[in-house]
Design brief:
CATH architecture of the largest domain: 3-Layer(aba) Sandwich
CATH superfamily of the largest domain: P-loop containing nucleotide triphosphate hydrolases
Number of helices: 16
Oligomer: single chain
Shape: globular
Radius of gyration: 25 Å
Strand content: 15-25%
CATH class of the largest domain: Alpha Beta
Amino acid sequence: MTTKDQAVVPSVSVSLSQNGTSSEPNALGMRAMQERAYERRGEQYLLIKSPPASGKSRALMFIAIDKLENQRLKQAIIIVPEKSIGASFHDEPLSKFGFWSDWHVEAKWNLCDAPGSEGGGKINALGKFLESNSKVLVCTHATFRFAVDKFGVEVFDNRLIAIDEFHHVSIDPDSKLGQHLGQIISRGNCHIVAMTGSYFRGDAIPVLHPQDEAKFETVTYTYYEQLNGYKHLKNLDIGYYFYTGSYAEDIMKVLQPSEKTIIHIPNINSRESTKDKIKEVESIIEEIGSWEGTDPDTGFYLVKTHEGRVIRIADLVEDEPSKRDRVSSSLKDSGQKNNRDHVDIIIALGMAKEGFDWIWCEHALTVGYRSSLTEIVQIIGRATRDAPGKSRTRFTNLIAEPDASESSVSEAVNDTLKAIASSLLMEQVLAPRFEFKTKNVENEPSNGSGDGQNGLNSAKVKVNEKTGQIQIEIKGLSEPKSPEAVRICKEDINEVIATFVQDKETVERGLFDEELIPEELTQVRMGKIIKDKYPDLEDED
């Protein structure tokens, strides 16, 4: 285990080739992922799995316009998890960039902009929208749930239901949104577009029942395709660091005030939390430097670092709603979007994760173990925007070192193992995607070396420079036979690996069992996991 003075666990580091393809628009103004999704616009049920910053919101605009104009759906209802994300669906002049129509939402129908709670006013507004001739409405998951409870699922027939951050849905009996979605799919009278940057069914409870998921056409755009297609960002580092005592005392070992940083303080239920979030923010600021006051225009704190530079810190942990809302509004100021010096550090608890767009972020610093891989993916996504002058970015997880004197030492060690497992998974997610094929050697001449008996020596490698996909042809390799097995290899491979690296027995034996035969994990254990995850597969698959 590391000491307090040397708290570094080797990082995963991903280097990118910067081929620019993910940000280059086509003749209709669509980036690579958007074009791929638009090609499937005719599907009744469409699931878009694509990383943060890949342009999912605009992809939905293209698809929704086509469904309203050419597929004769009556209305489109865009559902987002929280009000702040509703801003992603404000008016866009798409025709300016080559598309045949603009995106427009009447101000009164973007319920995320309306004041007040998710109460009767917004629910009734949604009801009035359904009776109107207007085309597009934006609301939160909560408003939609309450509206279905009040009006029933039948009133949404012949409409597009688009669900942003789809991983919030689940088949848990307590998930009202999941229940409603199941009812809508059963009726079969709606079109559904679901979008997510984090679709790990192994996180906890599945998002969809297998029979419902089978109805969806999936568009997958990988992290590797997204990051490799950037123009500026070259490297992404992922690291885990351990501390003893108070995390605020050690935070400056991983925090550099000169980097644009989002700090997520620990969940109040985690071991790392002091249970006093306000004092935690104060302690972090004291470690960074001295408080110089508050900017009257933005509400940002002005803090002089130990090097003498005054930086601007946005506090989203503040309890007083008026102060927190003021800071949040300043962060979303569209006029400051391209101003790198607008803010330097953001401190948050539950905010600044999904849908939070700050392209200048160079460091996502998270305190405390995150049990959900979905949450880790979302937090990393805050730092993986492409921006001029930003060549390197990083994600850091600061975790309390297990203390043998603690009664919870077993839990602490498990958290540490899970953090390492998450790092391994993210390395897989961010790495090039491999596709293995059977090599046809019937017509190939023998070289007389005997290599034909060795599948690896006779492997043939092809690289798609545009997508980063690496195809390896191997003699004698068995390929999946059923359509479902082909689909799993094509679309679910990261989810399978997610389940594998989160398996407690797999991680413990892989790290500590010196007598372990690797095949016990890669074949026996993995085989059992696949059988449990996909019980209907034949043994051959």
